[in-house]
Each structure stands twice: as C-alpha cells, then as structure tokens.
Design brief:
359 residues; mainly beta; 2 domains; twelve-stranded antiparallel barrel
C-alpha cells in the first residue's frame, strides 16, 4: 500500500515511466498520489515510538447492536449504546522483537473497557455516529526495551467518528459506503491511541434471507497519519474485511415478554502494510454472540471472541456485553390509490381476527 505508493512516486520522479503510461492510468495515479501524499512522506520515516499504537482493534459501531463491524443495522431516528468489555492479551511480543537478547513481553496483558456512543439518522439513507472509550489495564509497557516507565492503569482512547450512506437497496438488501475518522485524543504513549489520526473507507453489504437470517460483510482500507515501528514490526496502513451471519431463534420468555433472540457469528481480519523489511500485523479474530430484544427499543448483546493468530490486535480472547436504546419510528402507510377510499381503522373487515357484527 504505502510502500507501493512510495515506489510509484519514485518512478514518477524519473519521468520515463510516467511518459509512456496510458492517460487513463496516469490520471488514476495522480488521484491516488495526491490523496496519500502526506501518508507516503510519513511512510518513509515511521516513528520509533512503539507505545503509540492502539492494541484494541474493536470497531463495533455505536448506537446499535449487531456485529463487531458496521453490518448495515438500521437506525430509525437515533440510538445510544454502552459496552463493557474484557480483553485478554491483545499484544504479545516474542523474545528478540527489540533486538538480540531482549525478552518476550506483554505490553498490555489485560484490559477492561467502557464504551459510550450514539448514532443519529439523517433521513432514510444516512447515519452518523461517535464513540468514546476508557479503560483500566495492566501490562509491561516497554520494559523489554529497558524503559522503566510503567503502564498507566487508567487511559482514554481516541475519539472515533463515523458515517455511512446507503447507495442501493433498502433495509432488507442494501449496499452502503462507510467512512471513519479517529482523532488523536487518547493516551498514545500507553498503547491506547494512535500516534496521529486514522481514516478508513469501506463498502458494506447486507441481506435479509428467508426466516429473517441476516448476512453482512465489509471490506475497506485504513490509513494512518503516522506509521509506528514496534521492534521488528510496523503498525500502519492496512486492508481490512469482515463477514457475519445472524440467525433468529424461537422467541423466548424474558421478563414475561416474548423476546426475539438471535445467534451471531463473525470473522474479522486485516492485512498490514509492508515497507522494506518490516511488515504490519495481520490479525484475525472470530466471535460468537447472542442478541436479545426484550423491548422494541432495547437490545442486549453478549459476545465472546478469540484471536486466530498471534498478531498485534488479535487477543487471546475477549468478552463484551452491550446495551443499546434505539427508538423505533413507525413507517408511513402507503397512500390510497386514486378514487379508492382510505382504510377505516374501525372497519372489522380490515381485521382478520375481528368478529362480524351480530354474531
């Protein structure tokens, strides 16, 4: 990605390769190089600040409950959410990561996080959201490098802003575009925030199958305002993707109410950038969850996940409980056809269960 862009930049500087390129290809190259010019320059000199990364890569959207990624869940008007999570070993670095003779280390061994967020619908097709997180954590920080400073117990994370627009389809089958921006407001020297901003763009697909089974997937690119060296590794730009399925179960009695219940499963992963001899992490995580809706506006979710490889951002395991309050807005009824009288809500013929008069 950025390494490839850097090589393209050097080729353009020589002039000969660019001169023979087709005009259409050259135009696309100009667009890409212009958009990523700042990131390209920084990729040549990544920061040697190994604690200035975010090791919890959870990207659950705020204001609703569904998958651990934006799976196109609807927001009628607005929604608020709160999540409590337990993360075990989100980063482990083997012996020799920081040079010959350096020991294995767990800069963050355990973390408990509270996430608060909200979402707002702007019409039928646009949703914007924001999320803020705070954590308690324990770990070694940079003891393996000889840095005696300890890991801060309580930290704030970067503020994340997001938005999406539906470009095709409806609530049941849709294609959507999502954009995210994180601001460097977290504790970047405590593995709880990136060195600078990050920006991501992704395409989301969602479909409701028979029996209310939902499948969703997303794929996109995330850019970092500054890439960071972590020993022999590089945390920076990446491609990411996720896929999930939610299957409803028969309604169960909960608090004397018929509460719809869904089981969910998902897979979330990323492919890190490669620059020179260093490469970024390629974390992969699987999750299973149960989603219950005891009230029309209230959704409760419980999820467990585990990293499938030993990479930065792939935890040994995670557990989280989510609550979301998302008021439902009644859809407007279809207008009556010309010359046809509107439905009378008191007409028993419109109610299949009504008893005819006089019987």
């Amino acid at each position: 990605m950025t390494g490839t862009v850097s090589r393209l930049s050097r080729c353009r500087g020589r002039g000969s390769a660019a001169a023979g390129s087709p005009p259409r290809l050259a135009g696309w190259g100009i667009v890409v190089l212009t958009a990523l010019a700042g990131g390209t320059a920084r990729a040549e000199m990544p920061r040697n600040t190994p604690a200035a990364i975010e090791v919890d890569r959870d990207s659950t959207p705020a204001g609703r409950i569904g998958f651990g990624f934006d799976g196109g869940e609807s927001v009628d008007a607005w929604g608020v959410s709160a999540t409590v999570s337990w993360l075990e070993r989100p980063i482990r670095l083997p012996a020799g990561t920081f040079g010959d003779g350096t020991p294995a280390t767990q800069p963050v061994r355990r973390r408990q996080t509270l996430s608060l967020g909200g979402a707002l619908a702007l019409g039928d097709s646009i949703v914007v959201d924001a999320r803020l997180r705070a954590s308690h954590q324990v770990g070694d920080r940079l003891h393996a490098t000889g840095d005696p400073a300890g890991l801060a117990r309580y930290v704030l994370h970067d503020v994340r802003l997001g938005g999406r627009i539906r470009v095709a389809g409806d609530r049941d089958r849709a294609a959507l575009l999502r954009a995210e921006l994180t601001l460097p407001s977290g504790d970047a020297d405590q593995l709880a925030g990136d060195a600078r901003w990050t920006a991501a763009w992704s395409l989301v697909g969602r479909a409701t199958l028979p029996h209310d089974i939902v499948i969703a997937g997303t794929a996109g690119i995330r850019l970092h305002g500054a890439e960071v060296i972590v020993g022999d590794r590089l945390v920076g730009d990446e491609l990411f993707a996720a896929a999930g399925v939610a299957v409803p179960l028969p309604a169960l009695a909960a608090w004397r109410l018929a509460a719809p219940v869904k089981l969910s499963g998902e897979l979330i992963g990323a492919i890190g950038d490669h620059v020179g001899a260093r490469s970024g992490p390629d974390p992969l995580e699987a999750r299973l969850g149960v989603i219950v809706q005891p009230l029309p506006a209230l959704t409760v979710g419980a999820h467990v996940g585990a990293g499938l490889d030993d990479q930065i951002g792939a935890p040994r395991w995670r557990a989280l409980i989510e609550l979301a309050w998302t008021p439902r807005v009644a859809r407007r009824s279809e207008p009556a056809a010309p010359g046809e009288p509107p439905d009378d809500p008191g007409d028993p013929d419109d109610d299949p269960g009504a008893t005819p008069a006089g019987t």
